[in-house]
Amino acid sequence: MLYGRLTVNPISAAWNTAARYHDYAGVGALWGVIFGFAAHLATRGRRDFSSLRALSAGRYDLVVRQGDAERVRAMLSSAGLLPADPR
User: 0.70 cut: is pTM over it?
Assistant: First the structure.
């Protein structure tokens, strides 16, 4: 009887380990529910993003070699792509 209490059954130990990790997953899921609910309350259920139909740039940066800047500026100006005051 004493010998049986001192030895470890490998199957029982494996199940105990699996049960422990299962408990950890349950605690993690519970924390996820708590934080999700708190975030939902904080934003009053509103989403913090909006859907976009198209993505367009507000401005473009153009890099040219030294000496070509004036020629490129003139080309953009003649095409109507350069604002009146580029600053």
Answer: no
